Amino acid sequence: MDLKVLALVLAGGKGTRLAPLTAERAKPAVPFGGKYRIIDFVLSNLINSGIYSIYVLIQFRSQSLLQHLRDGWQFGGMLQNQFIIPVPAQMRSAGETWYSGTADAVYQNFNLIEQSAPDIVVLFGADHIYRMDVRQMIRYHRDKGAGVTISALPVEKKFAKDFGVIEIDEDGRILAFHEKKPDAPTMPGNPEMVLASMGNYIFERELLLDLVGKDAADPQSSHDFGTNILPRLVDSVPMYAYDFQTNHIAGDPPGGTPYWRDVGTLDAYYESNMDMRAIDPPLNLYNRNWPLRTAGYSDPPAKFAFDEENRRGEAIDSILSGGCILSGGVVRRSVLGRHVFVHSYAQVEDCIVFDNVDIGRRCKIRRAIIEKNVRIPPDTVIGYDAEEDRKRYQVTESGLVVIKGERSPVPLSSLSI
């Protein structure tokens, strides 16, 4: 079937639980996996699925995100129906307010939906790590004759407080929607798991416009899909859950379990990055049939220098990005961003290192997230003494050390006068 599809990507979240990584950027702009940003996953999924008409709704601390979209996500060509356009909050509500919830974000961009008149609207979040062929979800949506379809997957019941939890019948129709309730019902026959919403929705156009319009007029609403709109639709609209576990990516071996992670906390973010550098990663970044797209830079290749006893540049079970130089230092089980310099005799283990970090001679660092532009002096020890680390850095309950970075300089053109 031929459908006109408009995608709205909700990319305005603060990501407060990821602080300090979100002190200068929105959560979707947080670096991930060395050379990527979190938003690259949803945008790659949409583009790889053949969805080329995309608005990215932004709000909080959006400059880093805007620069990334400029560098990596501008379409070239003359086709007006192919675009990725960032849409800042424009205070289009009657009270001229910022977005007060996910439904309000859509309502304040009512005009974008009316002007394009799509058959369906794909409404996805921008802060999860996963791959998904969205066409399969759209096909399911239309086969079921649904007004709304929500992608869902099982998660442990202890996480029910963090998700919308869905109850379904044997046909996949949604019977109840519980937003972030610790005591939400578990899955039939599996008391340890709940069926969680992934925050990815498909709506029929007219239904979506009607829903957000009525919600905007309700002074008691918090204007959120999970809290207000979806629970009310259960008995009035055909609403179905799409089983994400059935989604298959071209080029992946059959029978694998699809990977999806909510990286809303520092520890979850760290663990998901560590998943990427595993020997057999649960999410394969090397599948050429489903590329993870991002900004492209003219970085030189990574370089390993020196071959002496105790002074050998090497990386084991790690991901390195362009421009990295391991000048006699050792990196183990780590993810390095662009232009990281590891000096002689340094040891970096189980770390995430952002761009432009310089790690001095004889440093010993383990279980740390090091933000952009950090300069670590020679002989620094991090990750071996939690009490000492807390005096200088943020340390999570699990002992993960987070080192805040510096703003990147912005080069300006010169004018001769």
UniProtKB/TrEMBL annotation:
Its EC number is 2.7.7.27. Pfam families: Hexapep_GlmU, NTP_transferase. The keyword Nucleotidyltransferase applies. GO terms for biological process: glycogen biosynthetic process. Alpha-D-glucose 1-phosphate binds at residues 99, 164, 179-180, 197. Gene3D superfamilies: Hexapeptide repeat proteins, Spore Coat Polysaccharide Biosynthesis Protein SpsA, Chain A. It comes from the Bacteria. Residues 7-276 form the Nucleotidyl transferase domain. It is an enzyme of class 2 (transferase). Residues 300-403 form the Glucose-1-phosphate adenylyltransferase/Bifunctional protein GlmU-like C-terminal hexapeptide domain. It catalyses: alpha-D-glucose 1-phosphate + ATP + H(+) = ADP-alpha-D-glucose + diphosphate. Belongs to the bacterial/plant glucose-1-phosphate adenylyltransferase family. Involved in the biosynthesis of ADP-glucose, a building block required for the elongation reactions to produce glycogen. Catalyzes the reaction between ATP and alpha-D-glucose 1-phosphate (G1P) to produce pyrophosphate and ADP-Glc. This is Glucose-1-phosphate adenylyltransferase. The lineage of its organism: Bacteria, Pseudomonadati, Pseudomonadota, Alphaproteobacteria, Rhodospirillales. The gene is glgC.
